[in-house]
């Protein structure tokens, strides 16, 4: 009898994750390892990378680590090229991101440059590099971690929102250009999840209440719920999906009034 259940495993696949050692990136890295992927973890902090590598290797995962700041994306691409050799890159997750929350009139050029370079410029040039490798095998999955802030207006900073909106449009345009090579480009748009990026905000009871009031599911997300979407977009289960942004948001982006 024919089967319709796609595989949700990543056995034999190589996945690269930026910002891999904390929060959403760490959850994605662990879930990919659990799905059987070989992982290449990119982060700025050697101790965090060493710890996660040890933990994952204890579970039998093939782990390679690269220390680097994604703002220096050329340097990181060189290091990825060194470790990947002639292996394929099957999945690339542009997760690293940061925010400096301030009102528009107070944004400095330095803050603009840091947010734009970290969240947007690096993601584009990493995608360009990953696509070169994926074209050779005529298959690949690029996953950009955007935000609901790229789709609706939040109080958390215009420059950050611009970068997240840019990732949504970059996802659409790259999926159009690279679809003929079998490269799928999708994005995930999270609402609030408990990570170091949101830790201070989520310690404020009123702020959390404001979030819950705007969220049909009446709660903040759990990292496992976000990792599930990242696994789906990395596996053959999503092979006919490209150019899309999946908002993992408890329904927030559909809540008009
Ligand atoms: N936590 C949340 O509620 C939401 C997070 N996001 C996005 O999810 C992604 C991950 O964020 P979180 O896990 O929440 O934050 P996090 O701060 O806990 O983790 C971000 C990771 O990216 C790394 N990173 C930041 N700047 C870097 C740089 N220049 N070079 C290399 N690594 C760098 C950090 O070291 C850290 O490992 C970000 O793109 C963020 O914009 C989007 C919507 C909501
Ligand atoms: C949902 C947003 O992306 C969220 O808002 C913030 O202030 C943080 O920067 C998160 O990214």
TrEMBL record:
Key words of the record: NADP, Oxidoreductase, Rhamnose metabolism
Pathway: Carbohydrate degradation; L-rhamnose degradation
InterPro entries per UniProt: NAD(P)-bd_dom_sf (IPR036291), Sc_DH/Rdtase_CS (IPR020904), SDR_fam (IPR002347), TR (IPR045000)
One record GO biological process: rhamnose catabolic process
Keyword match Oxidoreductase: yes
MF GO annotations: oxidoreductase activity
Keyword Oxidoreductase included in the entry's annotation: yes
Reaction equations catalysed: L-rhamnofuranose + NADP(+) = L-rhamnono-1,4-lactone + NADPH + H(+); L-rhamnofuranose + NAD(+) = L-rhamnono-1,4-lactone + NADH + H(+)
EC numbers, comma separated: 1.1.1.378
NCBIfam families per UniProt: PRK07231.1
Similarity comment text for this entry: Belongs to the short-chain dehydrogenases/reductases (SDR) family.
Name of the featured protein: L-rhamnose 1-dehydrogenase (NAD(P)(+))
